[in-house]
Specification:
Layout lengths: L5 H21 L3 E2 L1 H10 L6 H8 L2 H7 L3 E2 L5 H15 L5 H11 L4 H8 L2 H16 L2
Parallel strand pairs: 1-2
Helix pairs in contact: 3-4, 5-8
Length: 138
């Protein structure tokens, strides 16, 4: 197998940047792996996530070099939908462990992801409480 030359790598980086620019025009400047994979359905010639990571040394680095902000794995909408469902089944004052068991059983977003998004479990409970209050006021 022959090693790619610097020129070929430059061309691939140019191609990645082209598709990232197209993504930005059609979506936003925040990109997740999941949203990029959906985008690739429309543009099958766009480089794969693996290839982006290989060229730049990581997904986040590739995004940043293309002036895109790497987003969370789950969109805000997906996180809130999961929390709405959780509040329906578990209420608003749920322990980390009880949520973890529910999420695992139902294939939902893990509590670790929620902690990364919101900071502390108390902050997650504030969001759950807000969702619960929103439902009651309707």
């Amino acid at each position: 197998m022959t090693k790619k030359t610097y020129f070929e790598e430059d061309k691939m980086i140019e191609k990645i940047n082209f598709y990232f620019e197209q993504y930005k025009k059609e979506n936003s400047d925040v990109i997740t792996i999941k949203s990029y994979e959906k985008f690739r359905v429309k543009y099958p010639d766009a480089p794969s996530v693996y290839y982006v990571m290989k060229c730049f040394g990581g997904w986040r680095i590739g995004c940043e070099k293309s002036n895109l902000r790497p987003g969370f794995k789950y969109s805000e909408r997906e996180v809130l939908a999961t929390l709405r469902e959780a509040s329906s089944f578990l209420g608003v004052d749920v322990s980390y462990e009880r949520y973890r068991m529910w999420a695992k059983k139902n294939g939902q977003i893990s509590p670790k992801v929620l902690l990364k998004r919101f900071g502390t479990w108390a902050d997650v409970l504030k969001v759950l409480n807000g969702i619960h209050n929103e439902k009651e006021s309707r």
